[in-house]
Design a protein that fits this description.
About 70% of the residues lie in helices and about 0% in strands. Helix 7 runs parallel beside helix 13. The protein has about 350 residues and is mainly alpha-helical. The chain contains 13 helices and no strands.
Length: about 350
């Protein structure tokens, strides 16, 4: 990891640790105040606990023009992004995405969409509905490796992170506590429960928390729709297409709506927020990822609405291109933050519940 980023984060953490004004703001500060000195692993852990809600920045009396010039959300954001890039496997792809995320996502979506259209033009033995464009076997052959390989990459990254932050043997109580925190997005409500100041320093809001929840639960519903369809196909010999009131369709439509609305909301919030209280170097990657995830949901809904028209093959190619791009880039995008964040919460539970610093 980059020494200059860790050095600056350590300087600011030591000042914050002496002040302790923000002690109850989120999970970062109890963890920070548990010690007096900060190793590289400690700073990496604090950075991945941080949600960049910015409440501590707007409450701080030592921000510029004070000589201490504190901007802890920015310092931790930079260390957080550097930790994802450093622990990622293969590493060069992560660094490229965070600096050129929008262009990479767009190029991959269009390129893969053209590939799917080419497969259709060459000929794919299909069936009814979408399978008339691309057969079920062809979809499985393409998407199964694209799903498994990113999971392997993430497992390697998380193992590197866990060793760096001094994580120990996992206990069910630690995992349960962390999942509960993540499900409620509790830290985005801040310690006082009024929300954070992400969009406006003078107004507390739950908007970013709710947008995060819409994206997370929308994605989980879409994943549940795919999983349900897989079970119905292989265990109950019920291949697609499915009727509107089937589980895959109901889960997919509700998930697509939440995903699309959540991503649009999050994009609006990020465009209104002050980007200098965060990691400017990851700006393109953040927006590119949100746009990619939102387009995946929107294109899926468009397929539900216009799947019986002549535009369906092109729309399907674009949707599959977006989904495949999402899977392939998962270990190198903001999606990795969800996994690192959960790992950080589990590690913090080991500190707070087990007394394991």
């Amino acid at each position: 990891m980059q020494t200059d980023l860790l050095t600056e984060a350590r300087r600011q953490a030591e000042i914050c640790n002496a002040c302790r004004y923000c002690e109850g703001y989120c999970s970062v500060f109890p963890s920070m105040h548990a010690g007096r000195a900060f190793s590289d692993g400690d700073l990496t852990q604090l950075a991945n606990l941080c949600h960049n809600c910015r409440g501590c920045y707007y409450a701080c009396q030592y921000t510029a023009p004070h000589e201490f010039d504190l901007n802890l959300p920015k310092a931790l954001s930079e260390v957080r992004r550097d930790s994802w890039e450093s622990f990622a496997w293969p590493q060069p792809l992560a660094r490229k995405f965070h600096s050129h995320g929008g262009a990479i996502a767009l190029a991959l979506v269009l390129g893969l969409a053209l590939l799917f259209l080419a497969i259709r033009a060459i000929g794919s033995v299909g069936g009814a509905g979408f399978y008339a464009v691309l057969s079920h076997n062809a979809m499985v052959a393409i998407f199964l490796p694209a799903f498994v390989l990113p999971l392997v990459s993430l497992a390697i990254s998380l193992r590197r992170y866990w060793r760096s932050v001094g994580g120990t043997h996992l206990r069910l109580a630690n995992i349960t506590h962390a999942v509960g925190m993540a499900a409620k997005m509790k830290d985005l409500a801040a310690g006082h429960g009024d929300g954070c100041n992400f969009e406006d320093e003078d107004r507390f809001s739950h908007a970013r928390r709710f947008a995060h929840q819409a994206i997370m639960y929308g994605f989980l519903l879409c994943f549940a729709a795919t999983s349900t369809g897989t079970v119905m196909h292989y265990l109950f010999n019920m291949p697609a297409p499915y009727p509107l009131w089937s589980f895959p369709k109901l889960l997919g439509i509700s998930g697509g709506l939440l995903l699309t609305l959540g991503c649009g909301w999050m994009m609006a919030l990020k465009l209104r927020a002050d980007r200098h209280i965060g990691d400017i170097g990851a700006w393109s990657g953040d927006l590119g990822f949100i746009a990619l995830l939102g387009f995946s949901g929107l294109s899926g809904l468009a397929l539900y609405a216009f799947g019986d028209t002549q535009a369906m093959p092109t729309m399907l190619a674009l949707h599959l291109g977006a989904v495949l791009t999402f899977f392939l880039l998962t270990p190198f995008t903001k999606m990795a933050h969800g996994f690192f964040r959960l790992a950080a919460l589990i590690r913090d539970a080991q500190r707070s519940i087990d007394g394991n610093p």
